[in-house]
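I would like you to sit down with the pair of lines that follows and say whether tokens and residues agree.
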Amino acid sequence: MGNFFAGIQQEGMLVKALELRGCEPYIVSDKFRLASLGYRVFGFKRFVWFDDYRDSHARSLAATEARGLLAKVGSLRDLLALRYQGIGVGRYALPRARVLTLR
């Protein structure tokens, strides 16, 4: 548990720095009571819970959207330029794609 709380402290300081620069960060975490309490100590009130996206309907919806996005990818350059709702996500998808192709 010691590393868990240390991680929340480190993340809390980084997120607080983003807030001070004008960002409106959301904490993305499991619905674990101690985790939300730890983040709330820093004054964070905006959360997105992994648990809300773990049901089978949400997973199938995400898979459908991902297939639609990946249908547009024909090259490495296309993957790196991939955007979802205006946000560049290709560079984050690349490491995962690499792992899948190495299996």
Q: What stands out?
A: The first strand starts at residue 27 and ends at 29.
